[in-house]
Amino acid sequence: MNKLFMALFCMAVLSMVVSIEPKCSAFHYEEKLLEKMIRMEIEMENIQKGIQAFKEETKQQIETIADDLSSTKSQLEAPTNDVRSLNEMVAFSAQTVAEVAIPVSDQVFRFTRVDLNIGNGYDSTSGVFIAPRPGLYHFNVHICIQAGYGANFAIVVNNDMIGGSYIENKHYFTCTSASAITTLTKGSRVWVKSTYGCGHCRLYQDTQERRNSFSGFLLN
What we know:
Layout: H1 2-88, E1 91-97, E2 111-118, E3 122-123, E4 128-130, E5 135-145, E6 149-157, E7 160-169, E8 174-184, E9 189-196, E10 213-218
Antiparallel strand pairs: 1-2, 1-10, 3-4, 4-9, 5-8, 5-10, 6-7, 6-9
């Protein structure tokens, strides 16, 4: 009987232990799980903050690179603009007249030595400049005469005189200049001519100071 009682008592205690233990283990597990979830949530927040910081830093780097590219593009385009401007320039300079005697009026002064001819507008054979493009032009002519001689000359645009001068000196070699600014259309013709001819109308030129010359360039 005692043995039976002891057996029943042991079974009852064991049953109580078995019934209590799972409840304690489940609570402990849920607590640990909650802590783990909280840690994961904190880690996710830190990761999101890191991603956001990375995005902002990357955005700033992209903006910096874009600014550098824009600056580099402007620097690369600058020489191109310079080349384009050079291609649009028009300028010429010529000296040394072919004929020094001026026996008649309307004689074209042909300046045969060409030092500059950007745009290829000046023709040394005819002494005529033909505008390769429209715009505002400046022209200058420098004329020298022998002592005891004189010269009358003018700058002509399409047969219209736009500037000129007269020079005469009985005792000395001397020089004078005339200039003009005018608007030309493409194909306009410009030259220097005598406005009076005579036996005592004569130019003088040498390789030093007394140089007859004709020049012009596109202003705008």
